[in-house]
Design brief:
The protein is mainly beta. The protein has one helix spanning 44-50; strands at 7-17, 23-27, 33-36, 58-63, 77-81, 86-87, 90-91, 101-105, 111-119, 123-127, 137-148.
């Protein structure tokens, strides 16, 4: 059976940053991940590259940033007043360190994850882009199994 819309496939793969070959994620064949195809749950480029493959087939392809998580949006990087992080008049300084990912809520009540990229005296620099934005992604792996979706 081939991977197509309406099918699910178990995959084992390694995801690399295409530019520097740094491993982003590794899924072992002993614990494959199941993906549902044709349900608009996967990035378009990933889904299209796997259509037509069968159990046992190997794959190795690159998806450009534009077809994956998009380019880095400079408007999603900004400084937030440090007092925004006060809880009961206190700021947890340990939480406010570069690299930490902090859940935030915007003015409309939407939840976002922001990565702290700088800590200044009065402001905290945060990046709300997807962690893989701006990266070309290379997927290399094997199709373990293909099955019909059951609703």
């Amino acid at each position: 059976m081939k991977i197509a819309p309406g099918k699910s496939a178990k995959l084992a793969y390694t995801l690399f940053s295409a530019s520097d070959k740094k491993i982003i994620e590794k899924v072992e064949a002993s614990k494959p991940v199941t993906f549902k195809f044709g349900a608009n749950e996967l990035i378009e480029g990933f889904e299209k590259k796997l259509y037509g493959l069968r159990a046992g087939d190997q794959f190795d392809f690159i998806i450009t940033a534009e077809k994956a998580y998009g380019p880095v949006d400079l408007y999603a990087i900004f400084d937030i007043p440090k007092d925004t992080f006060e809880v009961d008049g206190e700021i947890d300084e340990k939480m406010l360190s570069v690299g930490n990912v902090v859940p935030m809520t915007d003015n409309e009540g939407n939840k976002h994850l922001g990565k702290i990229i700088k800590v200044l005296e009065e402001t905290i620099g945060m990046d709300f882009n997807h962690p893989l934005a701006g990266k070309d992604l290379q997927f290399k792996g094997t199709v373990i199994e293909v099955v019909e979706n059951h609703n």
